[in-house]
Write a structure and sequence with these properties.
- The chain has a domain of 272 residues: ABC transporter involved in vitamin B12 uptake, BtuC (Orthogonal Bundle).
- Helix content is 72%, strand content 3%.
């Protein structure tokens, strides 16, 4: 009697129901609001606004997912966004910095803020919840000091274009559609398919678990359709938003960082089992320190984008941004205890929040009910995560 040995079985990758579940939820929400708004949700102008208006939360979510994977939380990012926005506006309008120097200064200030908080968390041992709660108050107060309760407007066009501008359509139009935007969509689609095929070939060569070809082509087919549909809509409006290019670069960079670098694996290791990571020789203090430095830099970038989008710095900027970013990460499938999460999941979670905001606004739903609905969505997302973990035996 012969038995099948493990060596003869073809390794297959189990379907990640958490990630596919949130993607399905996003599609359902889009279809629902498209019906309820009589097709207004997916008008080209609304799609463009969805990207530009939610860019800040998507940028913050990219940094926040790294923080949460490492087992921490950051409540200060909204205040950091406001303070960095004030610094960049002052540097441009008061100190006479060129717009690009103001952007670099904003990123530097964000890094210093992250280093400040990372020091207390990593080397002093104060819980991140307490450190960043204090940071929320400190940096909000410094924003009020910098702006003296007022606003700074009249920023140069090059600066405001970061959050509210589009790539110049230097390739012209074809049938009323921006050729550059369509070309970028096609290029992105091809690059995605090639990358997925190469990744699967590598897994096959190493005899590691992988998707079936049917799963691979189905997933890529849906992704390509979504990319080209987005490019088609944007090409008929004003073209490709500059912030969309920034977001694409961040998604690629941080997905690579978390999945393909030593630092990324150490972040997952710390969040999954801190003691085991320490015993394995991971320099946990320095990893935690750089996690917060990274969050500070991205909060600085979000501050620039938010200020550019608004056309000026205001003391009330960044209100509840930290809650939106945290909600996006948890809705996107990150584990509350740490150790689990993806950049793509956080982006999808941020889009869920963005579509909810836009759809409810188009329907003229009261702001109080909007907050209630978003809170329920967050609660259900975390409950779904916990249910999945219990169902899989805590794995």
């Amino acid at each position: 009697m012969t038995t099948t040995t493990p060596a003869t079985r073809k390794p297959r990758l189990a379907i990640n129901f958490r990630q596919y579940g949130i993607l399905a939820a996003l599609v359902v929400i889009i279809v629902l609001f498209q019906i309820l708004t009589n097709g207004r949700l997916l008008l080209p102008g609304n799609v463009n606004n969805l990207i530009q208006q939610n860019a800040y939360v998507l940028i913050l979510a990219v940094g926040m997912v790294v923080v949460i994977i490492a087992g921490h939380i950051d409540l200060s990012v909204g205040s950091v966004v406001a303070m960095v926005g004030a610094v960049s506006a002052i540097a441009t309008n008061v100190w006479g910095f060129p717009w690009w120097a103001s952007v670099l200064l904003a990123l530097l200030v964000g890094a210093l803020v992250g280093a400040w908080q990372g020091f207390w968390v990593a080397f002093v041992g104060i819980p991140a919840f307490i450190v960043t709660l204090a940071g929320m108050l400190i940096f909000r107060g410094l924003t009020l000091v910098l702006l003296t309760g007022g606003t700074i407007s009249g920023l140069p066009d090059e600066f405001t274009a970061i959050g509210a501008g589009w790539l110049p359509g230097f390739l012209g139009e074809l049938g009323g559609r921006d050729v550059l935007t369509l070309g970028l969509g096609l290029l992105t689609s091809v690059a995605l398919v090639v990358q997925q095929l190469r990744s699967r070939a590598t897994l096959r060569r190493l005899e590691l678990p992988r998707e079936t070809l049917t799963q691979l082509w189905l997933k890529n087919g849906i992704a390509v359709v979504a990319i080209m549909w987005l490019a088609w809509l944007l090409s008929g409006y004003s073209g490709t938003p500059i912030i969309l290019i920034i977001l694409a670069v961040l998604i690629l960079l941080y997905t690579f960082m978390l999945n393909q670098t030593v630092f990324g694996r150490h972040v997952y290791a710390i969040g999954g089992n801190l003691f085991a990571a320490m015993m394995s020789g991971v320099k946990t203090k320095w990893v935690n320190f750089y996690v917060f430095v990274n969050m500070g830099v991205l909060a600085g970038l979000a501050g620039v984008v938010s200020t550019a989008r608004a056309g000026g710095a205001v003391a009330s900027a960044g209100q509840n941004y930290e809650l939106d970013a945290i909600a996006a990460v948890f809705i996107g499938g990150a584990a509350v205890q740490g150790g689990i999460g993806t950049v793509v999941g956080a982006i999808v979670g941020g889009l869920v929040m963005g579509v909810l905001n836009m759809g409810l606004s188009i329907l003229s739903v009261d702001a109080a009910w909007q907050m209630t609905i978003k809170g329920l969505v967050l609660l259900l997302a975390v409950a779904f995560d916990i249910f999945n973990k219990r169902r899989s035996g805590g794995r």
